[in-house]
Design goal:
The structure is a homodimer. The first copy, chain A, starts with a strand and ends with a helix. In chain A, strands 5-2-1-9-10-13-14 form a seven-stranded parallel beta sheet, with helices on both faces. The radius of gyration of chain A is 18 Å and the shape is globular. In chain A, helix 1 crosses helix 13. The relative contact order of chain A is 0.15. With about 300 residues, chain A is α/β, with parallel strands linked by helices. The first copy, chain A, is built from 13 helices and 14 strands. The interface between A and B is medium-sized, with 34 and 34 residues.
Chain lengths: ~300, ~300
């Protein structure tokens, strides 16, 4: 069994590689839900949907999220009313949010809905939200004020300096049913190449999950989302710096130090392998930029091979 | 000033005629909201939207409700999840529901949202919901059980016998701001040709509104939605019968007897005028089937002329 801590686009691409080299039924992906937001009354789960749509082969390849061939008639109509539409929800994508919102209103747990949506798209792996409880990433800006994650990520285009990140509700959140069991039983626990602060961070903030990784640290393999000193996508690099670390594989290694036994870094960062190893973990150097599913599959094979206890 | 008690399609067509013959700024339409429903977490207001879209010239002419040239990508996507989609929400129409739901969630009153939506569509008349409070039409079926209005109207296609109709929440509902004032100041109060039981009934069930009509009965002119013994659209005829009345202009007159001073009936029902008058009201005979805006305008002129105190 393999458990994967997952954010959005990077994690989704890795999972596509992984289902190509391992029986999907052996995989449990534990997905960040601290980016979830309520827009116009609808519960939106960006990371869960990115993972689902990508694994279903239905994702928009140009963006890495949203559905391919999407239309935006509802958002265009909403513009008439002057409502904020900077978070563009596609018409077909709305079907998912309508379903999720209706089910949650009827009393279903998020993990129930995630399983139903995954089944509807024919996914073979098990998808779990990190928690059924409400956890929300909040970012305190250097210029003052605190914003919700999507406000920062989409509206402000993650281009403003951040002073502090917190995960509202995390202290009292419980891991979703099956999360701790999947981590306890996994031969390998993979930390996907997702933002270590705002994608992996919230998962680790749910009580019990970080502790489980620490106790099974030798089996935990992380893939660095930082390549050649910058994030392939999103604000991982600048957030690492703004919060007092550095934008490099060494910065990632330091951030995850207590929880991982192996860090996988890209060929571009080979020179930094000794520094990573000096932090008390193994360092595997391979191609990590998943431009194609083949690269993703090779990366998945390398990650599994890197797990010393498998 | 003119106040109009309004349901959906019939009322909307009458209002199109009315704005053609009276300064729109002189008109207040008080619209039924007991058909409102929450679908997939979204607050849907069918009668308000039908009136709005019709007056804006954007309604689907084939159905009399919904938007013309609409697409249904979100509903088609929702089908994947096996969610009930018998209430088909168009993509552009969803924009309205998303806006309404978001505003209500942010603490706005329904009457605020109605005014905003009406302004966005450039409507010149004043649109008011009958109440900002939650009132819901519930129908007890002869075969047993009680269903919500849309379940009866859309899902069951109003083809099952009804034993009783009630308006849940009406006792404690307050008329929306401006409703009683508009009725008190109106030279003419028009009861639009809407279903007297499930469209006009809920408006009259909001405490204060029926009393206001009774005290100004001489100024109240109703247009019969029953023509030649049947409703032009919907279940008005069979509901009148099932609830112990009759499907005729006389049945309508009896149902509204205490609240109206004049009933407008179609030429087809001319022979029944004496029976209507015998119930203690005036009876005006004219063309009431609004196949074109011109007929609607002529009807509006006739209604205003019928008001004895204008």
């Amino acid at each position: 069994m393999i458990a994967v801590l997952a954010g959005g686009v990077g994690a989704a691409r890795f999972l596509v590689g992984l289902v190509g080299v391992v029986e999907p039924g052996e995989i449990t992906a534990i997905v960040n839900t601290a980016d979830d937001t309520v827009l116009h009354g609808l519960h939106v789960s960006p990371d869960l949907d990115t993972v689902t749509y990508t694994l279903a082969g239905a994702v928009n390849p140009a963006t890495g999220w949203g559905l391919v061939g999407e239309s935006f008639a509802a958002m265009d109509a909403l513009d008439r009313y002057g409502a904020p539409t900077w978070f563009r929800l596609g018409d077909r994508d709305l079907g998912t949010h309508l379903y999720r919102t209706g089910r949650l209103a009827a009393g279903a747990h998020l993990s129930d809905v995630v399983a139903e949506v995954a089944a509807a798209w024919g996914l073979g792996l098990r998808l779990l939200p990190m928690s059924d409880d409400r956890v929300r990433t909040r970012l305190e800006l250097v210029e003052g004020g605190e914003v919700a994650f999507q406000e920062y990520f989409v509206h402000l285009r993650h281009s403003v300096p951040v002073r502090r990140v917190r995960f509202e509700g995390a202290e009292s959140a419980r891991p979703a049913p099956g999360v701790l069991e999947a981590l306890a039983e996994a031969e390998t626990i993979v930390v996907a190449p997702s933002n270590p602060i705002v994608s992996i961070g919230p998962i680790l903030a749910v009580p019990g999950i970080a502790e489980m990784l620490e106790s099974r640290r030798e089996r935990v393999v992380a893939i660095s989302p930082i390549v050649g000193g910058t994030a392939l996508k999103g604000p991982a690099g600048r957030l690492l710096v703004e919060l007092g670390g550095e934008s490099s594989v060494v910065g990632v290694a330091r951030h995850l130090q207590a929880r991982i036994g192996t860090l996988v870094i890209d060929e571009a960062d080979r020179g930094l392998a000794p520094e990573v190893e000096a932090l008390g973990m193994r360092c595997l150097v391979t191609a990590t930029v998943m431009g194609t599913p083949e690269v993703a599959a090779d990366l998945a094979r390398a990650v599994l091979a890197a797990s010393p206890l498998r």
